[in-house]
């Protein structure tokens, strides 16, 4: 079977084109969307992701603001930066880049974000709205990676309804909200959310029409675990350094040979990552439209 690619790069580019038009319309009405980022520390990966978010904003006409703090910033200093972004009228939405350094109470920081400016959809109020709203439309920001995965699959003409989905990983940014999003009436998939305490993971994966792998364990999904015709979504971002060249590259949770069984697969890189970035922009534009009273 030759699996088809769920092209995250091309899909994200198409979404950015759509968003550019919506940003132009907001600007014509005097509304300027602005994304704030709060980065603590000097982790190269996080620095790269934040720089990418600012480049994306420039591409679609969203203004951007940065709050960068050193790795030894205290809880109080980080909370003060969140308060500045909450109060800055030029910032219509913002994110706190995760992970925060060890010793920082991440949940307390996320709870301080004004839910109306929560561009990541990770504030308890917005996660709570996702829990409460099973049918109808959701008018609060959604976590970017799960939202991106739902769109990536739908925009390739693949229907989620009735599919048996196995999600690997119960993290707050991907696994847990993924289950909530996929079981909404508008999507209508059936979800098994697995984790390190799950017994017989291979057997569960073998039954899945769609596998969303967000365990952060290189190659945890192997070819013998994949049902023929399955859809494979790889969220894993492990890094492997070539001992000869010293160069590092991203490796996912799904072993490359597993694609041989699949009908569709998301490449990694080039699949879920670009969609996560595009959905952050979508959340910023949605939020600015709501604040301006022009949401469709
Ligand atoms: N506040 C948040 N923190 C983090 C999130 C998030 O959604 N909100 N997700 C990840 C990091 N992340 C965005 O912040 C992110 C990760 C990966 C990509 C991406 O485009 N990856 C590329 C490959 C990049 C590489 O080679 O290293 C790809 O998949 O093609 C974008 C954003 C954790 N923190």
How would you describe what is shown here?
It holds the Pfam family THF_DHG_CYH_C. Residues 143-291 form the Tetrahydrofolate dehydrogenase/cyclohydrolase NAD(P)-binding domain. Belongs to the tetrahydrofolate dehydrogenase/cyclohydrolase family. The mean pLDDT is 97. The longest helix has 21 residues, at 8-28. The chain is 38% helix and 16% strand. It has helices spanning 8-28, 44-60, 75-87, 106-112, 124-132, 144-154, 175-182, 201-206, 272-292; strands at residues 4-5, 34-40, 63-69, 93-96, 164-168, 190-194, 210-213, 231-234, 238-241, 248-251, 264-265. Helix 7 links the parallel strand 5 and strand 6 (190-194). With 296 residues, it is an alpha/beta fold. Helix 1 runs parallel beside helix 9 (272-292) and helix 6 crosses helix 7. It is globular and about 55 Å long. The chain has 2 domains: 30-119 and 275-292, Leucine Dehydrogenase, chain A, domain 1 (Rossmann fold, 3-Layer(aba) Sandwich), CATH 3.40.50; 142-265, NAD(P)-binding Rossmann-like Domain (Rossmann fold), CATH 3.40.50. Bound molecules: ligand LMY7XDAE.
């Amino acid at each position: 079977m030759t699996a088809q690619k769920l092209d995250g790069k091309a899909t994200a580019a198409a979404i950015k084109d759509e968003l550019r038009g919506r940003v132009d319309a907001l600007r014509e009405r005097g509304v300027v969307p602005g994304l704030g980022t709060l980065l603590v520390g000097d982790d190269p990966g996080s620095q790269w992701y934040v720089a990418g978010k600012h480049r994306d904003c420039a591409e679609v006409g969203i203004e951007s603001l940065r709050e960068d703090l050193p790795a030894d910033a205290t809880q109080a200093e980080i909370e003060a930066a969140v308060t500045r972004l909450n109060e800055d009228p030029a910032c219509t939405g913002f994110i706190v880049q995760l992970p925060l350094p060890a010793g920082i109470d991440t949940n307390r920081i996320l709870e301080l974000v004004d839910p109306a400016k929560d561009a990541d959809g990770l504030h308890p109020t917005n996660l709570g709205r996702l829990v409460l709203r099973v049918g109808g439309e959701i008018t609060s920001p959604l976590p970017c990676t799960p939202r991106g995965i739902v769109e990536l699959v739908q925009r390739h003409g693949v229907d989620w309804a009735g599919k048996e989905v196995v999600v690997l990983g119960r993290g707050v940014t991907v696994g847990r909200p993924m289950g909530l999003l996929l079981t909404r009436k508008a999507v209508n998939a059936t979800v098994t959310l697995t984790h390190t305490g799950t017994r017989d993971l291979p057997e569960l994966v073998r039954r899945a029409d769609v596998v969303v792998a967000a365990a952060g364990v290189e190659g945890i999904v192997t070819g013998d675990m994949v049902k023929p015709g399955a859809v494979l979504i790889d969220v894993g971002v492990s890094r492997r350094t070539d001992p000869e060249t010293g160069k590092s590259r991203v490796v996912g949770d799904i072993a490359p040979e597993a694609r041989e069984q699949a009908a569709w697969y998301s490449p990694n890189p080039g699949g879920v990552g670009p969609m996560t970035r595009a959905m952050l922009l979508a959340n910023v534009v949605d939020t600015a439209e709501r604040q301006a009273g022009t949401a469709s």
